[in-house]
């Protein structure tokens, strides 16, 4: 009973704050609502007994992603009002399609039955007597080694991509290179020349 | 795949052609000639060895190369089928081709593009070898098309000549009509037998003799339909009446080309194909009857045209057509071996005649009109003798090659009962008379009488170099002894062992055996009319030289008919080309053009162009448009399904 | 709980080695003092060669708890993909150096993308499928935008990224629906479950449609194609060449595996989707290309059309159909490599050009190049006896054999329309008067090599198609016995 109340509470806040994310006039407010949505989602995960995912959601999404968003929104002076101008024009068509999709999904939900094979084909049932995090740890490097390592590669590629697209070595800026400075020998760089009067110096 | 005689025989010309064609400019004309001739020699040597091995030791074989197409029921592999029939053809093709290769070293000595020429010759030879050694119909078709393509290139070799280009196109188009028939035949065969391998087709031919194919709403005897379609292909390639008009025009090509294409190889492809498909043709009685009539008519009509022509090469071209007619009516009466025998001897003496006439043209500095020749025999004695030998063989004078084969055909034809065969026999004997007549008309007009050329040309007349004469000697040997030496194998008492299973004749229907029992007057008739023909020609062109002109005047309409080649070209022009113009103009003038144009090509083009612009407009460049389009697609699919599932 | 099994490593050896070698190459590229692009590029080609060899002599079987499968199909498709990647690397070198875009990350990213494609081809569960898909896509987004100082390149990368993210979203939504209704992510188990009554549930159908939509995005089939022309045009040409060759083959392979594997029981349902997508792609590819003036854009539409033809074979849903798809994609990859090699050679006065009208007069200026391009265009138009004709022939044959007459008819008609713009290129090359002098003669041997090889293959496919057909047949039988 209490579980149900909390479930509906969190869900309602989640849906409402998600709605606010896309309707809020102030972009900073939108990001803050996003954070609220994340927290509620995390709460739902906790209720499902998936505390590890809940914590990850809070740490990664709230702690890193959303804060990053906040910075971006604040640093880029985007005129959201102007962006939203087209909204009225596109709302009828877009809204109609969205509603159609929503209706269909509801209809699908109506026909949902738990798969009778769910039990037997569940990949790794929750072992007795260990925490959620522990259980995840047990399968992550064994049974799911392959997708886990692939995910690692994907993240590596993302990193390479980010560096490739943003790192800029500018030729016109002199950068300090300590080892070069230390290794510099006066003999190599200083040249003493005798200048005859009336003649120039060839550099 | 280790090096076998069979592969050498077939692929050496390909190698030669490839080298001369690709590197001809780099290695120079001399080297190109050397390479192609050497490889042709190797090919001919292998072919002769195989001839001995396969035909005289009775050891047919099939050499598997590799699987070509394997897709579902269609399973085609590349193999060289060296049975007796193929081996005869390979030997003929390679020997004649080798002679032509060597001959053209001399003949084309002053041409700019010798390497290209010799490359074409070699590739042509390869295509022909591919055709005759085919193990299935697809491979045969490949060779068939290859031959057609190369002949187009060779006929149009002097592409700066307008007439050569149009002749090449004419040959290509005419052949294409035939090829269309052949392709349809191929499809029908696959439809009926579910295979294109000769082995499978022949094995099931007997079961299919009562099968029918629905075509245009009628049921046709399946085998009759297939054979008729294939014969259309053969008519195109072998210049039978109706699809023959390209052959004389093809004389625009260099003379060695005429000798190779129009004597020994390409034009005989049709004959070979019918003989190859003999297991089917044996059951297609109606088609064979048709072939007999067509063959007889071709033999006669071509001969009548030949007696009026003045171009030395055209006379020989029409004679080729006429001889092909002989071969076809031999096929029509099931005398396959006789037809191939004639093909064999004909290759030698006709190549000899073509190359000989080439030698004459060479000597005259390019002149081809016999009215401007005459009195040449003292100046070019070797060529003169060669032309005599060729003509003797062509006219079927006893002891020369043509005598044995032509005689055999006419005897077999006579032995076959029925009006059709006898009709063809009468035409054949008449053609034999005309053959002798026009052959000696050619000799007398060219070599005897007073020189009609101007003095400058006559002074320059010279005997051809040895490189051109030696091939003539080789061919002359074949034309002289070929019939006598091989008669017993091809159509004599050894024939059953010689041919093995490569030719198929229904049991109890052996016209060759029956031919031994015909009355003696019928047997001697061809030789007698041949000699008569020579005598008449002698009288008309050596003694009473005024008479021919009078005859022409007296029979003006007949002469015009013959001289204009029975108006075939004009009829085709009137039937095919003019109506198209007329109909087009009427449609255009009455305004239907608007509808046809509007709905037809122009309309479609306009709609496509418009659609193209419209669809390009959709590409706005805005990401959210694109994203929305994707979502729309998804929603449309899902909606469609939800309604489908609910139903 | 399954522990680590050494056998897994043997089955997935090519992928493991490729990953290791790519990492090593990355390390080498970063550590070495000077940016030696050429060395890295050729090393990457060598890595791909080694990978190809490993694939060719690889072991068949499943690994990592059935998440990874290696069979005749995967072997064949991986070989095509690896060869395509190597070819596009070879083609890229000189161009990138000339355009001052030769960055050492380029070969490394190509290697990772290739790895992603190989994982896609071998995916045997929804999880590994998604992992492969992302590992393939991410480098592609970066590659499209690799000329970051060019607005068009950046725009192309960004567009591709945003739309790609949307398609990933669609995929995940679909996958979660399918998982929710079947209770499994394993292809083999899903196939068993969907064989029965479950296939008619609307939820599963919706999930399948969403998964299909995401995969259709990857092969740029209509209506999920709209990124292709913009990205093809905006991205640097070698990148476009890469896009057109390897990822398409991998995505088609993945689509084939998904439809003939887990969703085989829902053949009735997906067949209709594929038929519609295929028809729309053929139509749009044929019609929209007519008005194009930029050759890269034209090739984008042409590739949309080609995907439509390939899907014709898939719509047949038979072993012959799958075989036809495989053959078609092989031929398509070869033709595209050749066509892009020509585009990469289009340089006038030291500047790259990419308008169709720039090809004018090529027939006289560089007859050999013009001939090669004509052969490729005729082949793309499907004119016998070139390879492209056989590709089309086989897919249409397969469709007709399964009674899809309308589809085959639309295919034949649109290929007539498509022939128009392919032949227009030939016409421009031989008959149009050039505005300026012809192209600079290319010095790039790698480019010449790729062009010569593909032209040769296209011309002489007819002589010896047996090896391709036989391996494609074996590959198809691995999916549909």
Spell out the key features of this protein.
heterotrimer, A: mainly alpha, Four Helix Bundle (Hemerythrin (Met), subunit A), 10 helices, B: mainly alpha, two-stranded antiparallel ribbon, 28 helices, 74% helix
Brief overview, please?
The complex is a heterotrimer of chains A (203), B (647) and C (481). Chain B has helices spanning 5-56, 84-107, 114-132, 137-155, 162-193, 198-204, 222-237, 246-249, 255-264, 269-276, 278-281, 285-306, 312-332, 336-363, 381-395, 401-415, 419-447, 455-460, 466-490, 495-499, 511-514, 520-543, 547-554, 556-563, 568-589, 592-599, 601-618, 623-646, and strands at 61-71, 74-82, 212-215, 218-221.
Q: Can you describe this structure?
A:
Chain A has 203 residues and is mainly alpha-helical. Among the domains of chain A are: 1-83, Four Helix Bundle (Hemerythrin (Met), subunit A) (Up-down Bundle); 130-164. Chain A is built from ten helices and no strands. The longest helix of chain A is centred in the first third of the chain and has 25 residues, at 51-75. The model of chain A has no long low-confidence stretch (mean pLDDT 83). Chain B has 647 residues and is mainly alpha-helical. Chain B has 28 helices and four strands. Chain B has helices spanning 5-56, 84-107, 114-132, 137-155, 162-193, 198-204, 222-237, 246-249, 255-264, 269-276, 278-281, 285-306, 312-332, 336-363, 381-395, 401-415, 419-447, 455-460, 466-490, 495-499, 511-514, 520-543, 547-554, 556-563, 568-589, 592-599, 601-618, 623-646; strands spanning 61-71, 74-82, 212-215, 218-221. In chain B, the strands form two sheets. Chain B has a two-stranded antiparallel sheet with strand order 1-2. Chain B has a two-stranded antiparallel ribbon with strand order 3-4. In chain B, α7 (222-237) packs antiparallel against α10, α12 runs parallel beside α17 (419-447) and α14 runs antiparallel to α16. The model of chain B has no long low-confidence stretch (mean pLDDT 83). In chain C, 74% of the residues lie in helices and 2% in strands. Chain C has a two-stranded antiparallel sheet with strand order 1-2. A two-stranded antiparallel ribbon of chain C has the order 3-4. The longest helix of chain C has 32 residues, at 151-182. The two termini of chain C are 31 Å apart. The interface between A and C is large, with 37 and 49 residues.
């Amino acid at each position: 009973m209490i579980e149900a109340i909390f479930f509906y509470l969190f869900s309602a806040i989640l849906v409402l704050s998600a709605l606010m994310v896309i309707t809020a006039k102030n972009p900073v407010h939108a990001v803050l609502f996003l954070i609220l949505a994340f927290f509620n989602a995390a709460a739902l995960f906790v209720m499902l007994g998936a505390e590890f995912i809940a914590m990850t959601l809070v740490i990664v999404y709230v702690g890193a992603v959303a804060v990053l968003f906040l910075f971006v929104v604040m640093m880029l002076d985007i005129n959201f009002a102007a962006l939203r101008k087209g909204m009225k024009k596109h709302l009828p068509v877009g809204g109609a399609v969205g509603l159609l999709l929503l209706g269909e999904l509801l209809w699908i939900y109506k026909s949902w039955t738990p798969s009778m094979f769910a039990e037997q084909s569940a990949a790794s049932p929750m072992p007795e007597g260990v925490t959620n995090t522990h259980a995840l740890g047990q399968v992550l490097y064994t049974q799911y080694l392959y997708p886990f390592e692939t995910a690692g590669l994907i993240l590596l590629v993302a990193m390479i991509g980010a560096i490739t697209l943003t790192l800029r070595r500018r030729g016109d800026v002199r950068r300090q290179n300590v080892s070069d400075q230390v290794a510099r020998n006066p003999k190599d760089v200083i040249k003493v020349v005798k200048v005859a009067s009336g003649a120039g110096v060839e550099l | 795949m280790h090096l076998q005689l069979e592969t050498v025989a077939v692929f050496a010309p390909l190698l030669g052609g490839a080298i001369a064609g690709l590197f001809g400019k780099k290695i120079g004309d001399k080297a190109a000639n050397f390479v192609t001739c050497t490889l042709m020699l190797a090919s001919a040597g292998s072919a002769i060895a195989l001839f001995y091995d396969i035909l005289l030791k009775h050891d047919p074989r099939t050499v598997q190369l590799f699987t070509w197409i394997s897709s579902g029921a269609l399973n085609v592999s590349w193999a060289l089928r060296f049975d007796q029939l193929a081996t005869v053809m390979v030997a003929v093709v390679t020997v004649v081709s080798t002679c032509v290769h060597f001959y053209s070293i001399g003949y084309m000595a002053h041409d700019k593009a010798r390497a290209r020429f010799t490359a074409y010759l070699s590739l042509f030879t390869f295509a022909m070898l591919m055709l005759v050694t085919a193990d299935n119909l697809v491979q045969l078709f490949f060779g068939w098309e290859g031959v057609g393509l190369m002949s187009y290139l060779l006929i149009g070799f002097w592409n700066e000549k307008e007439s050569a280009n149009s002749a090449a196109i004419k040959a290509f188009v005419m052949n294409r009509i035939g090829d269309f028939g052949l392709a349809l035949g191929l499809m029908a065969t696959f439809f009926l037998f579910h295979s294109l391998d000769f082995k499978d087709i022949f094995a099931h031919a007997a079961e299919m003799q009562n099968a029918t194919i629905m075509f245009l709403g009628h049921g046709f005897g399946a085998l009759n339909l297939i054979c008729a379609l294939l014969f259309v292909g053969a008519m195109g390639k072998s210049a039978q009446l109706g699809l023959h008009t390209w052959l004389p025009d093809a004389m625009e090509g260099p003379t060695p080309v005429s000798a190779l294409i129009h004597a020994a190889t390409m034009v005989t492809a049709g004959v070979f194909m019918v003989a190859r498909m003999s297991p089917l043709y044996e059951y297609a009685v109606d088609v064979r009857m048709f072939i007999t009539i067509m063959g007889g008519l071709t033999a006669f009509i071509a001969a009548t045209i030949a007696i009026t022509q003045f171009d030395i090469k055209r006379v020989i071209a029409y004679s080729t057509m006429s001889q092909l007619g002989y071969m076809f009516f031999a096929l029509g009466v099931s005398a396959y071996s006789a037809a191939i025998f004639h093909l064999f001897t004909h290759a030698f003496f006709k190549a000899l005649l073509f190359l000989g006439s080439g030698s004459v043209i060479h000597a005259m500095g390019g002149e081809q009109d016999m009215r401007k020749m005459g009195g040449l025999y003292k100046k070019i004695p070797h060529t003169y003798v060669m032309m005599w030998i060729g003509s003797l063989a062509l006219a079927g004078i006893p002891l020369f090659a043509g005598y044995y084969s032509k005689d055999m055909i006419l005897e077999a034809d006579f032995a076959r009962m029925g009006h059709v065969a006898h009709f063809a026999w009468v035409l054949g004997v008449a053609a034999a008379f005309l053959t002798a007549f026009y052959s000696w008309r050619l000799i007398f007009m060219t070599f005897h009488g007073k020189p009609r050329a101007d003095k400058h040309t006559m002074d320059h007349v010279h005997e051809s170099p040895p490189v051109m004469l030696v091939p003539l000697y080789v061919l002359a040997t074949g034309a002289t002894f070929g019939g006598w030496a091989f008669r017993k194998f091809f159509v004599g008492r050894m024939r059953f062992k010689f041919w093995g299973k490569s030719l198929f004749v229904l049991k109890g229907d052996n016209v060759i055996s029956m031919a031994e029992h015909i009355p003696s007057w019928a047997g001697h008739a061809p030789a007698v009319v041949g000699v008569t023909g020579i005598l008449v020609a002698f009288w008309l062109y050596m003694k009473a030289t005024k008479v021919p002109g009078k005859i022409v005047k007296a029979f003006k309409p007949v002469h015009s008919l013959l001289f204009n080649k029975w108006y075939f070209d004009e009829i085709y022009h009137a039937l095919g080309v003019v109506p198209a113009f007329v109909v087009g103009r009427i449609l255009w003038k009455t305004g239907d053009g608007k509808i046809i144009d509007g709905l037809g090509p122009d309309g479609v083009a306009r709609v496509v162009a418009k659609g193209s612009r419209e669809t390009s407009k959709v590409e706005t460049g805005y990401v959210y448009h694109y994203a929305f389009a994707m979502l729309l697609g998804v929603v449309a699919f899902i909606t469609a399904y939800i309604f489908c599932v609910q139903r | 709980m399954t522990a680590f099994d050494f056998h897994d490593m043997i089955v997935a050896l090519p992928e493991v080695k490729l990953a290791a070698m790519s990492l090593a190459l990355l390390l080498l590229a970063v550590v070495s003092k000077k940016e030696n692009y050429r060395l890295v590029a050729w090393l990457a080609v060598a890595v791909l060669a080694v990978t190809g060899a490993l694939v060719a002599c690889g072991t068949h079987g499943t690994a990592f708890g059935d998440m990874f499968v290696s069979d005749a199909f995967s072997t064949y498709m991986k070989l095509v993909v690896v060869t395509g990647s190597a070819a596009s690397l070879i083609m890229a070198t000189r161009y990138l150096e000339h355009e001052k875009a030769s960055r050492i990350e380029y070969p490394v990213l190509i290697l990772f993308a290739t790895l992603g494609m190989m994982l896609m081809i071998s995916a045997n569960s929804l999880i590994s499928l998604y992992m492969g898909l992302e590992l393939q896509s991410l480098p592609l987004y970066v590659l499209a935008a690799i000329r970051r100082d060019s607005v068009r390149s950046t725009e192309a990368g960004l567009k591709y990224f945003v739309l790609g993210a949307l398609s990933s979203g669609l995929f995940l939504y679909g996958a979660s629906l399918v998982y929710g209704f079947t209770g499994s992510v394993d292809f083999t188990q899903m196939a068993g479950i969907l064989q029965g009554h479950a296939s008619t549930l609307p939820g599963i159908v919706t999930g399948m449609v969403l998964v299909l939509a995401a995969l259709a995005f990857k092969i740029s089939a209509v209506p999920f194609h709209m990124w292709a022309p913009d990205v093809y045009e905006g991205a640097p040409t070698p990148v476009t060449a890469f896009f057109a060759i390897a990822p398409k083959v991998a995505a088609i392979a993945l689509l084939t595996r998904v439809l003939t594997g887990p969703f085989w029981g829902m053949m009735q349902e997906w067949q209709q989707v594929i038929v519609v997508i295929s028809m729309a792609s053929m139509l749009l590819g044929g019609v929209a290309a007519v008005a194009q003036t930029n050759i890269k854009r034209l090739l984008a539409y042409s590739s949309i059309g080609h995907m439509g033809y390939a899907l014709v074979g898939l719509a047949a849903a038979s072993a012959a159909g799958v075989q036809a798809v495989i053959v078609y994609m092989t031929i398509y990859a070869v033709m595209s490599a050749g066509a892009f090699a020509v585009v990469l050679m289009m340089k006038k006065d030291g500047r790259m050009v990419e308008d169709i009208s720039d090809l004018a007069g090529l027939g006289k200026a560089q007859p050999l190049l013009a001939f090669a391009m004509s052969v490729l265009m005729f082949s793309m138009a499907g004119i016998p006896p070139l390879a492209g004709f056989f590709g089309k022939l086989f897919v249409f044959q397969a469709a007709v054999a399964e009674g899809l007459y309308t589809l085959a008819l639309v295919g034949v008609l649109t290929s007539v329309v498509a022939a128009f713009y392919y032949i227009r290129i030939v016409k421009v090359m031989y008959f149009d008067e050039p505005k300026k002098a012809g192209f600079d003669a290319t010095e790039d041997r790698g480019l010449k090599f790729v062009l010569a090889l593909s032209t040769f293959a296209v011309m002489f496919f007819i002589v010896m198609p047996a090896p391709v057909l036989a391996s494609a047949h074996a590959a198809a039988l691995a999916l549909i016995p």
